[in-house]
C-alpha cells in the first residue's frame, strides 16, 4: 500500500492506477454528485472499493452512519 497525494491509501502498481482513477472520478469529477444525496441516518456503499465514496459522503454528512460492503479482499485491506 502507498499513500496517494489526496491522503487515501491505495494499492501499488497496476491496481494503484485504478485506485487513483476512482479517487479522481469521485473527488475531482464528482461523478456521484454526493453533495446532492440527501443526508440520512445510514449510507450503504455496496462495492465500496477502497472507501473513496463513503469517505467523501462523510465529508458532507458527518453524522450519518456508513456501512461499506466490498467483496475483493485486497480492497477490504484498504477500507
Topology:
Layout: E1 2-3, E2 9-10, H1 13-27, E3 42-46, H2 52-60, E4 65-69, H3 73-78
Provide a descriptive summary of the structure in words.
The protein is of the alpha+beta class. The chain is 38% helix and 18% strand. The protein has helices at residues 13-27, 52-60, 73-78, and strands spanning 2-3, 9-10, 42-46, 65-69. A two-stranded antiparallel ribbon has the order 1-2. It has a two-stranded parallel sheet with strand order 3-4. Strand 1 (2-3) and strand 2 (9-10) form a beta hairpin. It is globular and about 35 Å long. It starts with a strand and ends with a helix. The mean pLDDT is 92.
Helix content: 25-40%
Biggest sheet architecture: 2 strands, antiparallel
Number of strands: 4
Mean pLDDT: 92
Write the element-wise H/E pattern from the N-terminal end onward: EEHEHEH
The secondary structure category is alpha+beta
Shape: globular
Q: Tell me the β content.
A: 15-25%
Q: Number of helical segments?
A: 3
Instruction: Compute the separation of the termini in Å.
Output: 12 Å
Structure at a glance:
This protein has 79 residues and is α+β, with helices and mostly antiparallel strands.
Could you name the key traits of this structure?
4 strands, two-stranded parallel ribbon, alpha+beta, 3 helices
Amino acid at each position: 500500500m502507498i499513500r496517494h497525494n489526496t491522503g487515501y491509501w491505495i494499492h501499488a502498481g497496476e491496481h494503484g492506477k485504478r485506485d487513483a482513477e476512482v479517487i479522481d472520478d469521485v473527488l475531482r469529477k464528482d461523478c456521484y454528485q454526493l453533495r446532492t444525496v440527501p443526508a440520512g441516518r445510514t449510507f450503504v456503499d455496496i462495492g465500496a472499493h477502497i472507501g473513496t465514496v463513503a469517505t467523501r459522503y462523510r465529508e458532507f454528512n458527518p453524522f450519518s452512519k456508513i456501512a461499506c460492503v466490498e467483496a475483493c479482499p485486497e480492497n477490504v485491506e484498504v477500507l
